[in-house]
Amino acid sequence: MGLFDIEVADADRGWKNIKAAESAAEAWMKAELQKLWTYHEPAADEAFRNEFARQPDTRFWEMYLGTHLVRLRRKLMPRKDIAQCKDGDKGPDFGIRKSNRVIWIEAISPSKGDKKNPDKVPESLPAGTSERILRAAPRRQVELRITSALYTKAVKFRRYREEGIIGEKDSCIVAISGVSSPFWQVTWACRTPFRRSIHLAMSNSRSTARR
Prior knowledge:
The chain is mostly helical. It contains 6 helices and 3 strands. It has one domain. It is globular, with a radius of gyration of 18 Å.
């Protein structure tokens, strides 16, 4: 089933516009996202498409990472073949079997943070202005957001071990994307041209309310 072949009432505006694909840019993006989905679908949990509709920026990273691993000829464990994940949604995002152990991967794309918290990463361009301001990159805030992301996934990995999904000899990896903030490009994160194009187009589509 296609990535956009669902109806989600509270979907993100950008997702709705991409699904409608009324512009050439949106039609291109929809086709490219569907290509990624063909790689990612076997390893995706049952809730992925609905969550992607609601949070396309954060869930895109998971799909992009899964696609990249498949293209690198890494054999991802299908969700249906993981005994403890028969309900479709439980367990890490990806599993790669290596002889007598499994490498488990959790993907996360931290948000910029709540504006009330000290770890909030500021906008590179303040809202309501076109004037660019030269200032130091908020390295400390970025580090705090990364620390929070690592803690969130560490808690998940601990629970999966307690539930018997992750074995004693298994390894755990947290894959962090910094796409949520432009400041991350000059601190920790890197973004490929394709990912930049996708997120720019998604942001432009989100700014247009048609549905």
